[in-house]
Structures are given as structure tokens and as C-alpha cells.
Amino acid sequence: QLQFVESGGGLVQPGESLTLSCKGSGFPLRYYGVGWFRQAPGKEREGVSCVFPNSGGSTNVANSVKGRFATSRDSAKNTVYLQMNSLKPEDTGIYFCAVADCSDITPQNSDAWGQGTQVTVSS
After folding, report:
1. Could you give the angle at the alpha carbon of 58 between the alpha carbons of 28 and 16, nearest 5°?
2. pLDDT value at residue 95
3. Helix and strand numbers, DSSP H then E, in the chain
4. Which residues of 27-61 are buried (b: 16+ CB within 10 A; e: fewer)?
5. How far apart are CA 29 and CA 22, in angstroms?
6. Has residue 56 got a pLDDT over 80?
7. Mean pLDDT, the chain, as a whole number?
8. For residues 66 and 97, what is the distance between their CA atoms, to the nearest angstrom?
9. From start to end of 16-87, where are the E strands?
């Protein structure tokens, strides 16, 4: 059974950077699309980025974070990363990873959710 554990969240100031990790266990992640999602207080969960399966690291990134966020996979560590730069207060939320359809990064198309990691951007 594929399971994820997210880590790397924390409190940062606007403009700073943070890297989140999504460690997989149970199966090699390279065979799965792995997406990052976030949920802000009082808002619906939304897709942020995704790395395609069996690819050379091809990714899909939501327009809302394009140019600031990037995702990558380290198959040797069975881990997917979310590099977040130029963070804004509106990036605050709980960040999750899950098996995802990278052509349409929506929670409804995703499965095997991790427990999430909190990111807070505040001065």
C-alpha cells in the first residue's frame, strides 16, 4: 500500500523560500503521478503541482504559483519535493501530497493522501 509522509513546513516571512518533502513508502513513486495540494483555512483544497509518472521529471504547475513553485522527484530517495520561492501570505495553508492525475490536478482525481504539513507565511 502506497503511503506518503509530508515534511518541511513551517513559519516563514513573505518573500522567503521553503522546500517541502513528500516521502513515499510501499511502491516506487516513479510509477505514479504525485501531486501537491494545499488547503487554506475556510477554502477548498486545490492542486498546486504534479510530477508525471515514468517521465524525465516532467511537471505540471498551477497558474497561481507558476514561476514561484517547482516540483521534482528523487527516485533514489522515493521522495517528491515542492520548492516554494517568493512566498506570499496567501500561500498559507496545509500542504498535502497524493497520487494524482497530473493532466488535471484536482483533489477529486487524487488518492493516498498524506497527513499534510503546515505552511504559514506571515511577517
Report:
1. 95
2. 98
3. 0, 10
4. eebbebbbbbbbeeeeeebbbbbbbbbeeeeebbb
5. 10
6. no
7. 94
8. 18
9. 18-25, 34-39, 46-51, 59-61, 69-74, 79-84
The torsion defined by the Cα of 47, 57, 113 and 42, in degrees rounded to 10, comes to: -20
Measured between alpha carbons, how far is 53 from 34 in angstroms, rounded to an integer? 8
Q: What is the pLDDT of residue 120?
A: 98
pLDDT of residue 70: 95
Contacts of 116 (CB under 8 A, 6+ apart): 6, 39, 94, 95, 96
CA pair distance 107, 56, nearest whole angstrom: 24
Q: Strand 18-25's sheet: what is its strand order?
A: 3-7, 18-25, 79-84, 69-74
List pLDDT tens digits, range 39-54: 999 999 999 999 999 8
Calculate Rg over the CA atoms of the chain: 13
